[in-house]
Amino acid sequence: MKFFIDTANLDQIKEAQALGILDGVTTNPSLMAKEGITGAENIVNHYKAICDVVEGDVSAEVIATDFEGMVREGEALAALNPQIVVKLPMIADGVKACKYFADKGIKTNMTLVFSAGQALLAAKAGATYVSPFIGRLDDVSTDGLGLISEIRLIFDNYGYTTEILAASVRHTMHIIDCAKIGADVMTGPLSAISGLLKHPLTDIGLAKFLADFKKGN
Length: 217
Ligand code: E4P
Fold this sequence. Notes:
This protein is an alpha/beta fold. The chain has helices spanning 10-19, 29-34, 40-53, 67-78, 92-103, 116-124, 134-139, 144-158, 172-181, 190-195, 200-215, and strands at residues 2-6, 24-26, 57-61, 84-89, 108-113, 129-132, 163-166, 185-188. It contains eleven helices and eight strands.
């Protein structure tokens, strides 16, 4: 399973990258705003800075909601760096833009996906990634992981190559469950990724090994 970090925070991206397990980054306008990055020029420069830190795919979201605007913005973003994946909202014009970029060989990430039907349309439009938001579904008492399973089944039935990018991951169990179900990618916060490291028996065991080593020296 690929690991993406879901943040625009460069320090956190660097920390995850230093672990050696990072495959990419996803951002969105809210994550950019959270880091105080506003204005088209600053946002573009920030995408370039993220691409300099990581080697994998970096999702950059368009703001336009009409086809022509999405194509204009998406082409400008894709021209920044070959790592850029154009992130498009799951609306009719987003699907049209997805097909347009797929035909041109530009990578896409269909975002704000909350149903199997939306994921099927994204795959048919040739999306590179489809992003079901599992945490936000859980927030409204709907089974986010169940949606990942449904999409897995549908994509496998027809051999769609669109990768299932489990998004809105909130904690370590989301990551583990996504791996069991067969999500191709997960994107989550650094806290969820680092949480996978922790086990009290590891800490106890290591302390004992070090103490026993000292006894013999
Ligand atoms: C996905 O690409 C989104 O950036 C993200 O995962 C949304 O997560 P949230 O529901 O925690 O805001």
